[in-house]
Amino acid sequence: MLRTLRLATLAALVVACLHAAPAQAATTYEAENATISQGAVESNHAGYSGTGFVNYANATGSYVEFTVTAATAGPATLTFRYANGTTTNRPMAIAVNGATTNRDFPGTGAWATWQETTLTTTLNAGANTVRATATTANGGPNLDRLVLGTPSTGGTPVQANGQLRVCGIKLCNQQGKEIQLRGMSSHGLQWYYQCLNTASLDALAGDWKADVLRISMYIQEDGYETNPRLFTDRVHNLIEQATARGMYAIVDWHMLTPGDPNYNLSRARTFFTEIAQRHNGKNNLLYEIANEPNGVSWSTIRNYAHQLIPVIRQYDPETPILVGTRAWSSLGVSDGASETEVINNPVNATNIMYTFHFYAASHGTEYLNALSRAADRIPMFVTEFGTQTASGDGSNNFTRAQQYLDLMAQKKISWVNWNFSDDFRSGAVFTEGTCPSGPFAGTSRLKPAGVWVRDRIRTPDDF
Q: Which parts of the sequence belong to the CBM6 domain (predicted)?
């Protein structure tokens, strides 16, 4: 039955794609065939494509220069595949026909661990030069290839990417390309369900151009435990609404108080069994199984994941699962710990990611650095963040928030902002009284945080 449902979904996707504007096929340029200055072609680390890779000399100014051909003038994506087995960033200046932008190439964990970084540029029709030049005495990373593609201009995020999966330490689409999703989280369905209607979700998908909707279903605080049937049906409905608009949907088991996820384990088994059984034919879901564990150890959270993940996998073997981390999904930082507890004792399951939450006015450099280090070792997804304090209220720190967004763009960490409602707090994007009538498109009913995050969600994707 699962196979039949998957095939039906695939058939529908193929039909949809037939009506979408075809994208120009990606073209691969192997680094070993490019012009090399102060570097050598080698093949002593596994995992490269082609016949080898370029090992930059440890020198400022060493470079690899490609000549790439564009059928027409216009926007293009340049995806560099590289490995950096050190813990030191090896930044490079990327010059396209002489116009330069700087790009970080941080450590990948090992010389045989390859990652991608993508930038969007504008090319001339015909031949173009793309030069990647080391800007420090450490030289550049090992460079495997450059892939020339076209930005997605037609179709929905799900049409562009299909079934997601975890590949290595990144989230990848059905073609194996590393991607970043950006979108919004609902507020609690017990309080602000009226903010999730046809008009608001049309605006989120069309005007905001969001890739993903996080469906936040609280368990306590007048949530799921008070009426499991009502809240499960609300989640079913919102999954269908996101699917109809071509967005991904995160099913958020929003446990918070009590902070031990095992308190709600029986409820979680019941809920996710029904969700996975009904929606296993869809290719646009992610399951977040523990919003913000707190007051418990990582081993307790890990044990919970080991009990719940097999329940989901019995019915849905393909959807990525997102696992909360210690101390309100701070990787333990809010308890004085660090990401190493997860790195050294990961969940024993495949196709999973770990979650991180931050609020820019409360969580400074210590948290930012922990996320950066973790993302170099394990798959990370920021399923909740705000530009204000951890209460979801107070003044915005847009400068710190932008530092986080820059990091997440660089490392292709997907993110979801809190929250898509008209709650009185500064973290709710709409002014009070906006729901249910709107308007939801444009900026006339947005608070400052809403204007800020809408602008950043609307930035073109690198699909």
A: 27-149
